[in-house]
Amino acid sequence: MTIVRVVAVAVLCLSSTGVVAGQSAKELAAVEQQITTTLHQMYEAEKRKDLKFIFSHLSEDFAEVAGDGKVYHRADIEAGFKDVVLNDYKLTDCIFNLMTRDAAYMSCLMELNATYKGQPFPGRFRVTYTWTRRNKDWLLRFEQGTVVPEPAKSK
Question: Which CATH number fits domain 19-147: 2.40.30.20, 3.40.50.300, 3.40.190.150, 3.10.450.50?
Answer without folding.
Answer: 3.10.450.50
